[in-house]
Amino acid sequence: MPRHFLTGAELSRDELLALLDRAIELRADRLGSDALAGRSVGLIFQKPSTRTRLSFEAGVFELGGHPLILRPDEMQMGRGEPLRDTALILSRHVQAVGIRTHDDAIIEELARYATISVFNMLTAGHHPCQALADLVTLRETFGDLGGLVLTYVGDGNNVARSLAILGGIAGLEVRVASPPGYALEPIAGARLFEDPVAAVRDARAVYTDVWVSMGDEATAEERRRALAAYRVDDALLDRAAPDAIALHDLPAHVGEEITAEVLYGDRQRIWDQAENRRHAQKALLELLLR
Ligand code: CP
Q1: Residues 201 and 237 in one domain
Q2: What does the alpha-carbon distance between residue 169 and residue 21 come to, in Å, rounded to a whole number?
Q3: How many Cβ atoms from other residues are within 10 Å of residue 71's Cβ?
Q4: Global pTM?
Q5: Mutational test site, ligand 1, from 57, 134, 250, max ligand atoms within 8 Å of CB
C-alpha cells in the first residue's frame, strides 16, 4: 500500500521528529540526495501558488527526480475525465502525486484510486506541508519542541487546523485565537481562545495567516471587520515570551493581518519558514517513497 499524506495525522511522533531533523540536515547540505533519481513526481495545481510550486518543483529536482507540473485546464481532467481514471493513469507514469485543490473530498478520491503516494499541497481543510515547514522552523530556532507554546492568531482555517494536528503530534501546545464565527473546531491538544492577548501569553511563536483566503473573496469586508483586532504587530508580540518569533505562511497583506515592522523585523522567521517548505517537503518525499 502506498503511504499518503493528506492531513498530517498519518505520521507518528517519531516519524515526524525524524522528518524535521532530516529537513534541517537537507537544509545544511544543499546538495540534497538522489532519493528520487530516475523517478517522476506529478504536481497538480487547481489553485494558484508561488511557494508551494517553487518549493516542490525545485525540491524534487534536488532529490534527483523530475517534477511534472500539471494544470487541470491542460489535462483531460479539466474536460470532465473522472478523477478515478486520472488517478489510475498517474499511477502508471509517476511515483507520487501532490494536489492543490478545493474540497478535501477531491484529494481523498485521488488517494482512494491511486496506487502511488498522494500528498496534500493545500485543500480547503488542510495545509499539512506548510505545517511541516513551520515545525522545521521552530525546531531549528528552539530545539526541543515538547511543551513549546505556538499561538495562531486569526481565522481558524486550513493552516490553523494543520498546525493543531501536526503541532499536537510534535508535542507543542497549539493555541488558536479567533473572533466569534471564525473559530477552529475543537481538535485534541489544541486550545481555543477569543482574546489574542491572553492567547499569546508565554508563546514562543506567534503565527498569522491572511484574513481573506482563496475562495473567501465574497466575504472579504466582513472578514476584515471581524478580524481587525487580530493583527500581529509589535504590541502583540511584546505580550508573548521575550524570545518569541513571528511566523506567517505567506502571501502577507501588510496592514491587515500583519504589520510591515513584524514582517520585515528582527523577530520574524517568516522568510526562513518559506525556505523551509522545500527542505521539509524533500524529507517528506523521502519518507513517502522510501
Ligand atoms: N504558503 C503557501 O502555500 O504559499 P503559496 O500559496 O504561494 O503556495
Answers
A1: yes
A2: 15
A3: 12
A4: 0.97
A5: 250
Residue-number span of the structural domain to which 207 is assigned:
130-274
Pocket test for ligand 1, best of 43, 51, 159 (most atoms within 8 A of CB): 51
| Residues near ligand 1 (Cβ within 6 A) | 49-52, 122, 130, 249-250
Sequential DSSP letters for 194-221: S-HHHHHTT-SEEEE--SS-TT-GGGHH
Do residues 171 and 147 lie in contact, with contact meaning Cβ atoms separated by under 8 Å?
A: yes
pLDDT, residue 30, reads 73
28 and 66 assigned to the same domain? yes
Written as one letter, the residue type at 35 is: A
Q: Give a yes or no: residue 135 inside a domain.
A: yes
CA distance 161 to 165: 6
Give backbone dihedrals phi and psi of 108, rounded to 5 degrees, phi first: -65, -40
Q: Domain check: are 122 and 236 in the same one? A: no
Is 260 within a domain? yes
| Residue-level pLDDT at 32 | 74
**Average pLDDT, integer, range 149-153:** 98
Q: Which residues pair with 5 in a beta bridge?
A: 119
Q: What pLDDT score was predicted for residue 210?
A: 96
Residue 150 falls inside a structural domain: yes
Whether residue 261 is found in the same domain as residue 165 = yes
d(CA 214, CA 285): 26
The verdict on residue 140 lying in a domain is: yes
Exposure string for 105-124, b = 16+ CB within 10 A, e = fewer: ebbebbbebbebbbbbbbbb
- The angle subtended at Cα 81 by Cα 80 and Cα 82, nearest 5°, is 105
Give the closest residue (by CA) to ligand 1 atom 6: 49
Clarify whether residues 268 and 284 are in a common domain: no
